[in-house]
Amino acid sequence: MLLKAKPTTWQKVDSDTVVFFVSETAWKKELGELDRAFFSQVILHAEAQGFTGGLGKFFSYPMVDKTRVRRVLLAGTGKSADLNIYRIRKVAALLVKQVRGLGSVNLALSLTSEPVSMLKTAELVVGMTEGLFLGSYRFQKYQAHRKDEKLVEVWLLVSAARLEVAAQAIEQGKLFSQATNYARDLINEPPSLTTPTYLANEAKKLAKKGIEVEILDKKQIEKLGMHSYLSVSRGSEEAPKFIKLIYKAGRQRVVIAGKAITFDTGGLSLKDSKNMETMKLDMAGAAAVLGIFSVLAALKPNVTVVGLIAATENMPGSKATKPGDIVKALNGKTIEVLNTDAEGRLTLADVLSYAVTLKPEAIIDLATLTGACMVALGEEIAGMWSNNSQLTANLQKNAEAAGEKVWPMPLEEEYRDLVKSDVADLRNIAKNRYGGAVTAALFLEEFVAKIAWAHLDIAGPAFEEKETPVNPKGGVGFGVRMLLNWLKSF
Ligand code: BES
Ligand code: ZN
Ligand code: ZN
């Protein structure tokens, strides 16, 4: 899809379809103010069809002659008072679906019309761009016969004064969407393809994009002392790969780590078939990290970023770790493994310990860690645990701008005893069955020393069971845009 800003108006453009954004209840007035004569027929027909201007409502009207515009499309943005980037992204994503059936391949979006002209240009255009690119994502590689018709040209019509800012915003929106869609692909690919070795090879490709890439194999991981991580891979034939990515810039340094269980069977604490169905998603954290690094050289944030991915399968092979086994993590703490399905925290224990040795300003981890987090916050919201309130506030602000939902959760000291073991320092499942997402976070905190850290449990929003306007079914690429926003703020 070609997307460009053009310093012209809807009267002068010769696209197949021109889109006007209008608000609920005020839409007639808004169109009247644009051009009463031109829109009088459109308004009559739209009204007769029950068009309201409500969020995500569309009305299409063919203009047969007297104009080069073949179709006018009204796009409802809801009540104008609280119009924001989140709703713009959603309307743009719905627009993609709307025009798919119309046979339109060339669209012009009038951004000089109310109510969108009220928004800041950068915000508006980033939202539009992301909505268009994220909304047109499809994973159809394995469906030869299903080729959805694609938009080929979209022009954003802006005033000359807004052109420069709009062009930059398009570039950012494109980069953020590309990174997100790449993460989606990694999650959606079948799990026997996306092995730890596959992820390592994807990481190696980033070397061409200005990223330093280091891959540690099993021997090197052993030598470092990451026995907790390795205990997860013991039941698998696939070799574990520890992936380290570095983007160098600025004096400050942060670590972004992603859980990378390329398939989670549960190990000997085997999942039932229903719960195992979607477990290719268990590397969504790592997919987000790879997505982020795929655009860092182009985005050029002013901060050094280290990406860490401890990739492995979790399988119930004959060498698999058994409930009751005790393993020692890189930071010296011992862990009694009582449930081999609580494997994410075992890999992250070593990843976080390793991150601490790099002495970064902050550590962020993204992990599809617990079903309990989905019980607590549902499928759309990630839980966020942090030992630093400023980091929490920062991340939440950047998530909001990205259209991603995170909510702060407590590191409750009273619960810490629940992850203490009788025979080792820690146990990998809590002593009781409540607050499982909180006790998982408390377990992770044992490995971050005193460094500012935020843990994002993305078990819910990582994978969409049903299509939403912006997110397709399957991998979402959650966390990519919020963290790119955050890195950009350094
Ligand atoms: N990968 C799962 C968590 C998960 C579940 C992510 C559903 C996405 C959707 C994780 O490894 C796991 O199995 N967690 C257990 C922990 C329990 C054994 C303490 C869980 O949540 O049931
Ligand atoms: Zn598991
Ligand atoms: Zn898992």
Automatic annotation (TrEMBL):
<feature type="domain" description="Cytosol aminopeptidase">
    <location>
        <begin position="339"/>
        <end position="346"/>
    </location>
</feature>
<feature type="active site">
    <location>
        <position position="271"/>
    </location>
</feature>
<feature type="binding site">
    <location>
        <position position="282"/>
    </location>
    <ligand>
        <name>Mn(2+) 2</name>
    </ligand>
</feature>
<dbReference type="InterPro" id="IPR008283">
    <property type="entry name" value="Peptidase_M17_N"/>
</dbReference>
<dbReference type="InterPro" id="IPR011356">
    <property type="entry name" value="Leucine_aapep/pepB"/>
</dbReference>
<feature type="binding site">
    <location>
        <position position="343"/>
    </location>
    <ligand>
        <name>Mn(2+) 2</name>
    </ligand>
</feature>
<feature type="binding site">
    <location>
        <position position="264"/>
    </location>
    <ligand>
        <name>Mn(2+) 2</name>
    </ligand>
</feature>
<dbReference type="GO" id="GO:0030145">
    <property type="term" value="F:manganese ion binding"/>
</dbReference>
<feature type="active site">
    <location>
        <position position="345"/>
    </location>
</feature>
<keyword id="KW-0464">Manganese</keyword>
<keyword id="KW-0031">Aminopeptidase</keyword>
<dbReference type="InterPro" id="IPR023042">
    <property type="entry name" value="Peptidase_M17_leu_NH2_pept"/>
</dbReference>
<keyword id="KW-0378">Hydrolase</keyword>
<feature type="binding site">
    <location>
        <position position="259"/>
    </location>
    <ligand>
        <name>Mn(2+) 2</name>
    </ligand>
</feature>
<dbReference type="InterPro" id="IPR000819">
    <property type="entry name" value="Peptidase_M17_C"/>
</dbReference>
<dbReference type="Pfam" id="PF02789">
    <property type="entry name" value="Peptidase_M17_N"/>
</dbReference>
<comment type="function">
    <text>Presumably involved in the processing and regular turnover of intracellular proteins. Catalyzes the removal of unsubstituted N-terminal amino acids from various peptides.</text>
</comment>
<dbReference type="InterPro" id="IPR043472">
    <property type="entry name" value="Macro_dom-like"/>
</dbReference>
<feature type="binding site">
    <location>
        <position position="341"/>
    </location>
    <ligand>
        <name>Mn(2+) 1</name>
    </ligand>
</feature>
<feature type="binding site">
    <location>
        <position position="264"/>
    </location>
    <ligand>
        <name>Mn(2+) 1</name>
    </ligand>
</feature>
<keyword id="KW-0479">Metal-binding</keyword>
<comment type="similarity">
    <text>Belongs to the peptidase M17 family.</text>
</comment>
<dbReference type="GO" id="GO:0005737">
    <property type="term" value="C:cytoplasm"/>
</dbReference>
<dbReference type="Pfam" id="PF00883">
    <property type="entry name" value="Peptidase_M17"/>
</dbReference>
<dbReference type="GO" id="GO:0070006">
    <property type="term" value="F:metalloaminopeptidase activity"/>
</dbReference>
<feature type="binding site">
    <location>
        <position position="343"/>
    </location>
    <ligand>
        <name>Mn(2+) 1</name>
    </ligand>
</feature>
<protein>
    <recommendedName>
        <fullName>Probable cytosol aminopeptidase</fullName>
        <ecNumber>3.4.11.1</ecNumber>
        <ecNumber>3.4.11.10</ecNumber>
    </recommendedName>
</protein>
<keyword id="KW-0645">Protease</keyword>
<dbReference type="GO" id="GO:0006508">
    <property type="term" value="P:proteolysis"/>
</dbReference>
<keyword id="KW-0963">Cytoplasm</keyword>
